[in-house]
C-alpha cells in the first residue's frame, strides 16, 4: 500500500512539474517530463476509475494541450524574420520539436502540414498572378522551391531529420504545382506553342528526377536503358524547327517514366512521412502534360515526313561500291530518324503520346513502302502504247534490274526492322499499350512491294523475250530441209538470260531468287507452248527442229540456278521446268505423229487438250479442211476423254523475311484418271490391252524426243519410219478403228 501511495505521490509531483515547465516554455525539460508522466499514466491505467487518478489524467491532458498551443504559437514566428532578431528562437524551436515527438504522432503531422502550407502560401500567391501563371514561366516555379530549400537549409535544421520536412514540403509543392499547371493548360485559348510546351515538360521532368534522386538515396532510374546509346544524335536536326532544335539538347538526360492519374491516386494511401516509402516523384507533375501533347506528335510527324521526302528525293537507287547489304541507304536513314524520334519521345512520356507516335511511325513506314512501290518500272499505257502493242509491257534495262533487286532487299530489311521496332517500343511503353503495338500491317505493305518487285523482274524479262518469240514464229518451219543446230531465237533467249541471271543471283537472297525462278518458268514454259500454235505450217522436219529447240530451251532454263550461283533449291525448280516444258515437247510429238494416228496420240500425250487445240494442230500439220473433217469427226466421238485445261500453276511468295523449308512455289495440276482413259478406249479391246498400247505410244513418243536430242536426225527419222509401219506394228494395233 505504501508503494502505491508513493507512486501516486510521484504522479502528482510529475504532473505539477510538467505544468510549470509548460507555462515557462521549458521545452527540453518538458519533453523528458512528458516521457515520465506517460509511463506513470500507463502504470495507473487499471485505476483510471479512481477519482484522484482521473483528475491527474485530465490535468495531464490539459497540460499537453497547453504545450501544443505554445509550440504552434512559437513556430508561427518561423520565417517572419524573428529568428534573426531573437538569437535563442531557433534553439527554442528545436527543443519544441522534442516536445512534439513526445506528444501524439498527429501533433507532428499537423505541425509539419501547417508549416508546409505556410511556406507555400507565398508561392501560391506569386504563381497564381497574371504575370507568372503562364506555361513559359514553369521553370521559375522550380527555381523558386530550390532557392527556398537552399536558403533555409540551416534554419530548417531545427527539425529532426526523421521528420523529413523538406521531403514533405516538396510533395505538397508538386501537388500544388500540378493543380496550377492543369488550370493553365486547360484555359489555353489556342494550341500551345510546341517549343514552349516541350520546354515546360522537359524542365518538369528534370525537376522530378532531381527530387527522385534527392529523396531516394541518390539512385537513378534510367528510362532510356532499352534504347542504348545514340552517338549519331550530334548531327540531328539541321533542318528542324529552331525552337525544337534547341530543346532537343535537353532530351539526352536519362529521365524517369511519368505516371497516369491512377498511379497518382495510389500515392494518397502511402506513408508520405517516410522518404523511400514508395512515393514516386516521377510523373507527379509531368503527367498532366500528357493530354496536351498532340501538337508535339503532329510536329514529329511533319518533321519525319519532311525527312522522308528529302531522303527519297536524294536517293540514287544504287548501293555504295563495296556494300555488303545491297539495300538502299534511304531505308537505314528512315529507321535512324525514327529511332531518334522514339528516343526523344520516350524521354518525355511512355504513355498515350508514345503510342500515338508509334502510329506515326507506322504511317511513315507505309509511306516509304509506297515510294518504293512507285519506283518500280511500269508497263506502257495510253493510246500510243495500245497502238504499238506495248500496252502493259514492262521494259527493264540492266540498271533497272539491279534497282529492282535493291528494292526487294530494302523491303525485306524494312520488313524485319519494323518488327524489331515494334518489339523495342513494346518493352518501353506503358504496359496498358503493349498489346496494341503491332507492325503487321506495315510488314504486309513491304511484302507487297517484294512480290511486285519480283513480278516486275519476271515481266521485264518476258518483254525481252518478245522479239525472240516473234522470231520463232517467223522461222520457215514448213520449208526446212534438214535438222541442224539450235535456232537463232534460242540463242537469243540464252543471251538474255546469260546477261541478267548472274546479276540477279548475286543480288537476291536464295528465297527470292527461287521465287523469281519459279515465276519465270511458270511464265516462259506456257508461253513457249502457246507460241507453237502461233506458227503457220510446220513440216515434219520443222517439227523435228522445233523439238530440238524446245529441249535446248529446257536445258537453258535448267541451267539458270547454276548461272545464278544459287543451286540449293535447284531440285524442285528442275522438276517444275521439266513439267512445264514437257507440254511443248508433247505437242511437237503429236505434230510428228502419222495423220491416221494423230488423234489417239493427242489423247495420250495431251489428255487435257481441247477440240479447238486439236483442230489447230491439224492446221499446223498442213492438212486441208476437207482432210481434217473425217479426223475431227472421229476425234469428237471420243471427245469424252478430253479433259479441260487444269488450273494453271499458282505461285505464292512466303512471308518476308523468313526463309521457307520448301520452295515458295505451289502448283496445282490435274491428272487423267486411269478409269476415264480406259473407258474412252473400249474399242481397242480389253482394258489391259488398251493400257499397254497407251504406254507403248508414250514410250515411242519419248523415244522420238530422245532421238532428236541425242542421236540426231538419222535416229529420229528411223524411229519415225517405224511408227509409220501400219501393217503389223504396235501403232496399227492401238489405232485401228
TrEMBL record:
Domain (Vps53 C-terminal) ranges: 545-623
Bilayer-crossing regions: none
Membrane topology qualifier: Peripheral membrane protein
Any GO CC annotation of this UniProt entry: endosome membrane
Principal location listed in the UniProt entry: membrane
Domain Vps53 N-terminal: 11-315
Location in the cell: Endosome membrane; Golgi apparatus, trans-Golgi network membrane
UniProt superkingdom: Eukaryota
Presence of the UniProt keyword Membrane in the record: yes
Residues covered by region (Disordered): 217-239, 638-672
Compositionally biased residues, Pro residues: 646-663
GO terms under biological process: retrograde transport, endosome to Golgi
Keywords of this entry: Endosome, Golgi apparatus, Membrane
Pfam families the record matches: VPS53_C, Vps53_N
Record family assignment: Belongs to the VPS53 family.
Name recorded for this polypeptide: Vacuolar protein sorting-associated protein 53 A isoform X3
Name of the encoding gene: LOC109726400
